Amino acid sequence: MGPKPVSTVLTAEQEAGAVAFRQHTQLPLDDCLYALQEMRLSIWAYSTALPLGPAPPVSAPWYQSPAGPRTRGEENAPLAFGKKFKDYPIGYLHVDFAEVSTEEGKVYLFVAIDRTSKLAFAELQPRATKMLAADFLRRVLAAIPYQVHKVLTDNGTQFGNMPHQVYAWRHIFDRVCDEHGIEHRFTKPAHPWTNGQVERFNRTLQEATVRPYHYQTTAQLNEHLQAFLLAYNHGKRLKRLRGKTPHEFICQQWHLTPTIFVRDPTHLTLGLHS
Questions:
Q1: Rounded to two decimals, what is the model's pTM?
Q2: CATH number of the structural domain spanning residue 151
Q3: Which of 22, 80, 88, 131 has the least CB density, counted as fewest CB within 10 Å?
Q4: Model confidence pLDDT, tens digit, residues 235-260
C-alpha cells in the first residue's frame, strides 16, 4: 500500500478532529465539508464545491466513499449512462405531486423545485385535481422573487389535456402559465425520469417527514414540512451550488442579473407561508 500521505494543510490534531467529526455525525461528505468550514477548520475542497486549495490525499479516511475518491471537475463530467443536464438560467421549475398519509387519511404532496437555483416549495392538498395544481402553481410563482420562464411536468390530467381531448378548453394549468409568459413543457411519454429532479426532491421530503415520523393530523405534517423547507432554502449548502444555500445563490444572481428579478430577495423569507 505504501506510506500514508501526510497533510500539508492540517495539523495531526485537526485531521484527527475531521475524522472524528464524520465518524460521530455520519454526515455525507459535502455536509461534513461545509460544517467544518463553518467551524473555521481549513480542510481541502475535494470537489468543485469551493476552490480552497489542493485536493486531499485519496487515502484520507474521512474522504473515502463507497464509489471511490472524487476528483476535481467530476461534477461537470458526463454521466456514464447519459448526457449531462443542459444548463439553464434560474426560472426553470419542475413540478410534480405524490401521495402521503397521516392518521386523518390520504393527502397529496405538491412539489416544485427550480432546476438551477434548487429553490423548493411544497404544500399538501386533499385531492390531486387540475384546479388545485393550478392554484399551487400560482402560489409558487407569487413566492419566487424572479421571473420563471419554463415549467416541466408529467403528462397527468392535473397538468394538461390528454391527446384525445382535441376539442377541450385550454387546460387551467396552461392558462396560469400563459398569464405569466411561461412555456409549459411535458416529460416524454414513458420517460418519467426526465422529471427526476423533482421526483428525487419529493423523495427527500418524504424521507424527512412521513417515513421516519408518524403524524396524527395533516396540520402536524404540514408544520414539519414547511419548517424543513425553510431550513432547506436558507440553510442547506449544496454541492451543485458550489457550497451555497439556495437563498445565497439567488442573492448572488440578484447582484449579477437584477433585471430578471421582480423584487429584492436579500431579506426575503422563501416559502409559501412567509
A1: 0.74
A2: 3.30.420.10
A3: 80
A4: 999 999 999 999 999 999 999 999 99
